[in-house]
Specification:
The chain is α/β, with parallel strands linked by helices. The protein has helices spanning 20-31, 46-52, 66-78, 95-106, 120-126, 142-148, 196-218, 229-232, 235-244, 260-265, 267-278, 321-337, 349-358, 374-379, 395-400, 421-424, and strands at residues 12-16, 36-40, 57-61, 84-90, 109-110, 114-116, 151-160, 166-177, 181-183, 223-226, 254-259, 282-289, 306-309, 340-344, 362-364, 372-373, 393-394, 418-419. It is 36% helix and 21% strand. An 8-stranded mixed beta barrel has the order 7-8-10-11-12-13-14-15, surrounded by 5 helices. Strands 1, 2, 3, 4, 5 and 6 form a 6-stranded parallel beta sheet that branches. Helix 4 links the parallel strand 4 (84-90) and strand 5 (109-110). Helix 3 packs parallel to helix 4.
Length: 429
């Protein structure tokens, strides 16, 4: 990994509170800002930790009361702490004033308290001076990330346009680097010839682990992962994929999203692989689909379960008739093949209403939820049992027949009927 000067010294944040669920909440909330985050519990452990590396920011929970909070401040002052402290407390807490007085006496830089409930914007304002600088980014070697255990999957819900409930989630790769915090894909180095298999295997393994975790807490959730076409056309790689899938009656299948341009370049091989993988509860989806699919003809027995129209044609579509035209034609093509449709990159209500009226089955974007860690996703309202009780299959997906049948065209203008697997018995066999 190469470290550009603008990324040196990524802020270290300590989260201090006696309650584990409070620390977890603060850690997950702060992780979106790409800090390096560590948890501390007892004042007695601060001295050694401060000798190793002093944090730039201490987020100090006040749930345990004034005495414990003041003990923490004293431990920081004893080591001449030069960073900042952000107290975190309920809005009506009487402890805040006591802590402020103590911090002033100890000459500790105390930020204005963060009072619950708070918004992301309010938190950003509180820590604005500490936010990591944007840059051309660290270059992360993904093979190293896998070896060191830094690879994580973050989940973004897919929302049903009519019922506004979650019908699955896309798993997106992130790296939790020990020095730079959360690193997004934009900073991943191009994979060399020796690393793609290891990275893909790690993604599959982590997704399966997360599925078991989500199932235990909320019931089965449809997960989509991103893999290159090289994995789908390699018999050994697909064999490893199938062996890792959950051996559980509630597991109905895994969606593998493949970049549209890659699929087009390897269409015949990808279609054969998709037909074979359907027999093993693996369905292939077209990611970032665009007008290139409109020019294809005579694609019989279409095996791809999902068209995800790229944000290039979704973002701003409410005000752009050309984008609406492209989306409408993509919807017509997807309906002809019996494939489900997703509009990716929904960030405004006007775009959401437009794609809903056009007829998209699902939407995905920051309007509803940003990608979040598996831990945070498991506790979000989207993953609650009532919000994702069995991913329904529209009539178009049922006609595609993930069990291996051929697609049938749907009637023009027909609204897809949403059928629950539990009601119809439809399974990914």
């Amino acid at each position: 990994m190469h470290e550009p000067a603008t990324r040196r010294g990524t802020p270290l944040v300590w989260v201090i509170d006696g309650k584990e669920h409070i620390r977890r909440f603060l850690r997950e909330t702060l992780s979106e800002f790409r800090f390096v985050i560590q948890e501390r519990v007892e004042a007695t452990e601060l001295s050694t930790a401060l000798d190793a590396r002093a944090p730039d920011l201490v987020v100090l929970g006040l749930t345990a009361g004034a005495t414990e909070a003041c003990d923490m401040l004293q431990a920081l002052a004893d080591k001449d702490f030069e960073g900042k402290v952000l107290p975190f407390a309920p809005r009506d807490s009487a402890v805040v004033g006591t802590v402020q007085e103590r911090a002033e006496k100890l000459r500790i830089a105390l930020l204005p308290p963060l009072l619950m409930p708070f918004s992301n914007e309010g938190l950003r304002e509180s820590i604005a001076t500490l936010l990591p600088e944007e840059s051309s980014g660290p270059v992360v070697d993904m093979a190293q990330a896998v070896r060191e255990g830094w690879l994580e999957l973050w989940y973004q819900p897919k929302i049903e346009t009519r019922a506004l409930v979650m019908r699955g989630a896309e798993a997106l790769s992130r790296v939790r680097h020990p020095a730079w915090g959360i690193v997004p894909p934009a900073y991943f180095a191009p994979e060399d010839s020796g690393s793609p298999d290891a990275v893909s295997d790690a993604v599959i393994s982590r997704a399966v682990e997360d599925w078991h975790r989500f199932f235990a807490q909320s019931g089965p959730i449809e997960i989509g992962i991103n893999l290159p076409t090289a994995v789908l056309t390699d018999s050994e790689a697909t064999g490893r994929l199938c062996k890792q899938l959950p051996n559980h009656a509630a597991f109905e299948g895994l969606i593998v999203e493949v970049n549209s341009a890659e699929l087009i370049r390897n269409l015949d091989l990808a279609m054969r692989a998709a037909r074979q993988l359907r027999l093993h509860k693996v369905a292939i989806a077209i990611d970032d689909a665009g007008p290139e699919w409109l020019s294809l003809t005579d694609v019989g027995n279409f095996p791809f379960v999902e068209f995800k129209v790229g944000r290039e044609f979704v973002a701003g579509c409410a005000e752009d008739r050309l984008k609406q035209s492209v989306c409408r034609r993509m919807l017509e093509r997807a309906k002809f093949y019996g494939s489900r449709t997703i509009a990716d990159g929904i960030e405004t209500w006007s775009d959401f209403l437009t794609v809903r009226d056009l007829g998209f089955d699902l939407v995905q974007g920051s309007l509803f939820a940003k990608p979040m860690s598996a831990e945070k996703f498991a506790h979000t309202c989207w993953a609650a049992p009532h919000a994702s009780a069995g991913p329904p299959l529209s009539r178009s997906i049922e006609r595609l027949s993930i069990a291996g049948g051929s697609a049938e065209p749907t009637e023009t203008g027909e609204q897809p009927t949403r059928l629950s697997n539990r009601d119809t018995g439809a399974k990914w066999r």
